[in-house]
Design brief:
Elements (H helix, E strand, L loop, with lengths): L1 E3 L6 E3 L2 H4 L5 H14 L59 H17 L3 E4 L9 H10 L5 E5 L4 H7 L5 E5 L5 H4 L4 E5 H11 L1
Parallel strand pairs: 3-6, 4-5, 4-6
Antiparallel strand pairs: 1-2
Amino acid sequence: MELQTIDSKKAVTLDADVFSEEFNSGLVHQTVVAFINNARAGNSAQKTRSEVRGGGRKPWKQKGTGRARAGTIRSPIWRSGGVTFASKKRDYSQKLNKKMYKKAMRGIFSELLRKDCISIVDTFHCETKKTKEFISKLQDFNLNNALVVVNDVGENEYFASRNVHSYDVCDVKSLDPVQILKYDSLLFTTEAVKQLEGQLK
């Protein structure tokens, strides 16, 4: 399986084990959900009526005052009272086996390749930190809403891309399914492709 680079028209041989995987929508969905949940902090916490400070004494006697009976000033219907269904810290993380992750990632890349959404260049480098240059390079390749995948993100590429919503750049190690599916196309360097194949075998 070969794919030509869009800058030099050289043929790059792609590993069939990585780029010819069957697309399993259920597995990809499970992988994406796991990544989203693993990113959740789960730090939201509120106090119930038993945890709010104060309210140990009955505010007034049960009968004879004309007011509604009350046992504590920390009731949820009182100002500064506890929360009825208080949220608590929890762990949202989901375990995902390495084999499942690799199979899902291979399926995503294979499907993108079948849809002609993957392009390869020999190298990708910005001379300056200007966003205008970064966008211009990608538009020269006729790429809109694309993710650039390189071996190591240089300082110029990082600063040039951090203020753009339709483009982004990342290294192979930080690729994840949520990030990939945000963009219409992927642009790999030849070195990044080889590193990706080594990771997903």
